[in-house]
Records
---
Amino acid sequence: MSTGSPGIALPWNRPLLFRPLQARLHIEAARQGMTDLMKLNHLNLSVTDVTACVEMFETYFGLMRSDMPVNEHMAFLRGEDGFLLSMFRAKEVNYPKTFHVGFLQDTPEQVYAIRARLLEGGYAVPEPQQNHGRLTFYFDAPGGFVVEVESFLGE
């Protein structure tokens, strides 16, 4: 079972970032004769509160500290699939209105479960909505950006 912060077990045991989509992309690439897909290696976020963002990503999304620095100025977290999320502190953060960081879950039940955990943790999280064949919600993360949690319906 995956773990977030020490002593906190997450209720799912899978890479959190786009696993079903990744499998579909590999199948389609094989059909088209492509042998290698480009893999997203990292994302850098400017955030107003590095410490709170680290706590959120570890506790609720299963990211783990890498072997690079994690402090109040910068942090480097890894997903189970090797994806690196880097964060650097900024005085102000102004992302475009539609910018967000999305986490795909395997089932709608997992969307509801993570929402419940976020509510217990004091986050203001709206009720999930059905939208374009997905169950999804968005919330304001500490640090000045938006996080989405979603699952496809009917898969």
---
Amino acid sequence: PQATGVLPYLASGNGVCSEFSVLTNLAVAITLEVVEYLMGLLAESSEFHDVERLCQLFQRLEDFYFRWCDGEFIDAEDANLPLIKKKQLREQLPEREIELGLRQVDVYTGLNVMILLLELDGYALRKDDLKDKITFHPCGKPNTDQFDSERFLRLPFP
């Protein structure tokens, strides 16, 4: 998908392979300019003035984030998505001086998703119809089965 189609694409639910592929297209630290651009697309998109669609996007990103935290993508035996994407990026960016390692692709992808979730959380706080529906808790929502106070300690930082 084109950059203008990333947010609707992620909200559409096209599968984990596709999600990982789209999200690793930014397999470097996401810049403030890119975050502002994506949030601008979100604000301008009539599709995401629909609270349900925006909540769906948030839930898909949050699900991806928690699965990333659990090591699902890097530890996959049958389809190691970070490895597949690393090879694609090396072919697409042969001039890049720094070698993209498997861990870098995985870590940057997860951290970029976390940044997007934090941005969506901040956006939702400014909207009365969203502030009770979209809240991002990096360790999981307190007092739920999803909560893990040590989640950050296990993140695969290089």
---
Amino acid sequence: MRDLLTKLCWPILRIFETEQTPANYKPSHRVILNVVGALFWILALGSGAAALNSGQLGSLIPVVVFFSVGFVSLIIGTLGSDAAVSKIWGTK
């Protein structure tokens, strides 16, 4: 299943994947990335509820942004290599 999801999400993963081995990678970086991704999805749900309540089309912009950031964070956190997680944190 992981191989199938990796193939489906390869356009996102290839941006962050590198051939270098990360020097400062810690397993907690992956956990924190997954938690941040989940928090962004919660923000997207809250923004979506507010967008439905307001009825304005412009209020969907935060929903799209928060959902996208959360989606990328969760994809990298679950399917990405240690180098990809290290690259998204900016550690080299």
